[in-house]
Amino acid sequence: MNKIIPVRSFEKLIFEFRGIKVMVDIDLATLYETETKKLKQQVKRNIDRFPDDFMFELTRDEMKQLIKAVPRLETLKYSPVNPLVFTEQGVAMLSSVLTSPKAVQMNIEIMRAFAKYRALLMGNSEIRREIEALDKKLNNAFKFLLDKIDALTPKYMNRKAIGFKTPDKIKILKITL
User: 110 and 8 in contact (C-beta within 8 Å)?
Assistant: First the structure.
């Protein structure tokens, strides 16, 4: 019965809040085959192990945003407490709080998912850099071509200006009362 979920399934459980990749307590409790309430109790009993960069509580607005983005978490809107979210380090710290074999096994798989997610992001940044370099080359090529076209067009010197002429000085009448 110790079935390990493939890493690709965990990637759908990783969200970004406040610029940080996190996992929601309800998903972690499901993975560890425990109740969310029990997971939160263990965390609160060991709160000194979970600083703000390991775990934080979502605001109501963030929770609504999460529910809107992920319909499977719709039960959260009935919860009187906001969900806790755990960073990669927070998930690792859960293994010291939840010591069941299932929890340790799941933590290993979740850590692999975070690593794969990070590698995917790094790959995207490399592709972005290559695209920016290509874009710069294309811009330089277009600039070169436009300069050549401008050099071929005839230049008109000493052309008489066309249009309306305005007087050099406009007289303003001052009326005093």
Answer: no
Q: Measure CA 145 to chain center.
A: 38
C-alpha closest to that of 85 among 45, 47, 51, 55: 55
pLDDT value at position 57? 92
The neighbouring-strand residues paired with 84 are: 57
At 37, list the tokens: 């309430």
Query: pTM score > 0.70 for this model?
Result: no
Instruction: Give SS3 for 108.
Output: helix
48 vs 169: CA distance, rounded Å: 79
Domain boundaries, the chain: 8-127
Give tens-digit pLDDT for 12-67: 888 889 988 899 999 888 888 888 888 899 899 999 999 999 999 999 999 999 88
Q: State which amino acid sits at residue 18.
A: R
Yes or no: say if 36 and 77 are a contact pair by the CB < 8 Å rule.
no
Residues 30 and 33: their CA atoms lie apart, in Å, by 5
